[in-house]
Amino acid sequence: MPYIGNSGRYLPSFARWCERQVGRAGACITAIAFVICWLAAGPTLGWSNTWQLIINTASSVLTLVMVFVIQHGQGRDTQSIHLKLDELIRVNREARNELISLEAKPDAAIHEIRAAFNN
User: Fold this and answer.
1) Does 1 map to a domain?
2) pTM of the model
């Protein structure tokens, strides 16, 4: 992972913290409560454009943040799985070592190996 200044230390741990928090039941309940409060405020605010803008802005910002949190988590999980599989290939004497780090090889190499498996 490339170094991203001083924030490179904090962003991964912040993303993991967000993953843990959003994965809890309380996060879903909080989101539902927010929508209910927003709906309840509708008649008070006369169903105004401001009322609509609040939910649209909040949902857009949360969606954008969650895309990055989910991408971070999936990238970390995928990298961990690849490393574990590489270790299994490395310790198995019958395994083909050219499959180690296959995800980093060009598409042509992947197609060749897939063709070899299909034969």
Assistant:
1) no
2) 0.65
